[in-house]
Amino acid sequence: MRPWPRCRRRARRGCCWSRSAAWWWCAGAPPRGLDRPGGRRSVRGMPPDTAPRPSLTKLFVTYLRIGLIGFGGVNAWARRVIVEEERWLSEQDYAEVLGLAQALPGPNALNVAIQLGERWHGARGALLASLGLFGGPMAVLVLMAWAHDRWGELPLVKAVLAGTAAAAAGMVIGTALKMAQNLRPAPPILAVGLAALVGAALLRLPLPVIVLGLAPFGIAAAWWTGRQPAKPGR
């Protein structure tokens, strides 16, 4: 069936994926998978193989920006850029990648960059994401180290550094709360997370001890949660 002329005009303006879908869209029944005008899927419901795939240049520039704006730690900024701004990953996907990065040796942000770069562009993507993440900050760090050697003992400089550290801690806490609110973990998984928080913040246990000690409980909690019937609205 050929679409009406008005629908063909709307298709040419880009309100549908193709002209063949224009009639159904204008009739009030959008094609399957379309959840808003413009023919784009939401990232939350998008399968991994159809998620946005950035180019090598976009990947490098984005991680360069993350590294330059991530004062006090880049994890909070990386999540905001990748999940909320660029929408390359859903909240659940990013939480899984970050969880694996925390279980591996090395900086968490670097592990995430390597995973995502390799996922989208193989070894070249992993290398460019890593260079973008650390190239800019390394240049800034050299300049700041030189400036700190010259003026680090000034009261104003000490006050600025103390305020920056407090703001960085607040960003990390805010990011953790926002991720927990969006993910809405089941009570068993939340209990494992709280146990990890107690072990790190109160008991001051080493990270390998926390990861190895809670890994069996986390796996069991995820397995038990996956066997439960999904609740309506989740």
TrEMBL record:
InterPro entries: CHR_Transporter, Chromate_transpt. It is found in: Cell membrane. The keyword Membrane applies. The keyword Protein transport does not apply. The chain crosses the membrane at residues 126-147, 159-177, 186-203, 209-226. Keywords: Cell membrane, Membrane, Transmembrane, Transmembrane helix. GO terms for molecular function: chromate transmembrane transporter activity. One of its GO terms (cellular component) is plasma membrane. It holds the Pfam family Chromate_transp. It is a multi-pass membrane protein. Belongs to the chromate ion transporter (CHR) (TC 2.A.51) family. This is Chromate transporter.
